[in-house]
Specification:
Helices cover 72% and strands 0% of the residues. The chain is mainly alpha-helical. Keywords: Membrane, Transmembrane, Transmembrane helix.
Length: 186
């Protein structure tokens, strides 16, 4: 079946090639992807309207680095948070709990799990937790001012289903990236 396919064989080849690089090259690649993630995430503040669509792409650099190495992925995530603190502090509450968390959790899931369904569920669950924290702990209207402040089962399930579907898109993007990305660049 489609959801129970093993997809990590190609990933192991990329991880081995990445680990053959020096630590300096690994950190440089992580910092470049951190810069990309910062630019994408900041687009929502600098380009209102269209920039919000660009800001969703901030997941991609974090996902890619986390797929290659959990350590470099975590460093990329932390550096992106630090850069956002200086460049666009208003995005600092969104990134760590949504786009960044999705990228790092899905990238780590590629390493930890072998089946597509496990990766999708792990990343979707992480994104759901991030959205719930923003909504109900920090009282930040991440879904807009019309979102419910009361906890209802329908609302929680709809956020979880959205998170699963959204992470499914990013998981498929990661798989396509593995198949299309030339190994010589890493």
């Amino acid at each position: 079946m489609y959801f129970f396919q093993t997809i990590t064989d190609q990933l192991k080849v990329f991880q081995i090639a990445f680990m053959r690089r020096s630590k300096s090259q690994q950190l440089i690649l992580g910092s470049l992807f951190s810069l990309l993630a910062t630019i994408f995430q900041s687009a929502g503040g600098f380009l209102p309207g269209f920039g919000y669509f660009i800001s969703s792409l901030a997941t991609a650099p974090i996902l890619f680095c986390s797929m290659l190495s959990m350590t470099v992925g975590c460093l990329t995530y932390l550096l992106t948070n630090l850069l956002l603190l200086f460049i666009q502090p208003s995005e600092l509450i969104i990134f760590p709990f949504t786009t960044g968390l999705l990228g790092i959790s899905t990238g780590i899931a590629f390493t930890l799990f072998k089946k597509r369904l496990s990766i999708i569920l792990f990343g979707g669950f992480s994104l759901s937790i991030g959205i719930f924290l923003l909504l109900f702990v920090f009282h930040f209207p991440v879904l807009g001012p019309a979102s419910s402040q009361t906890i209802s089962l329908v609302f929680l399930v709809s956020i979880f289903i959205f998170s699963i579907l959204y992470n499914w898109i990013w998981t498929e993007f990661g798989i396509v990236l593995l198949k299309k990305f030339p190994l010589s660049i890493i």
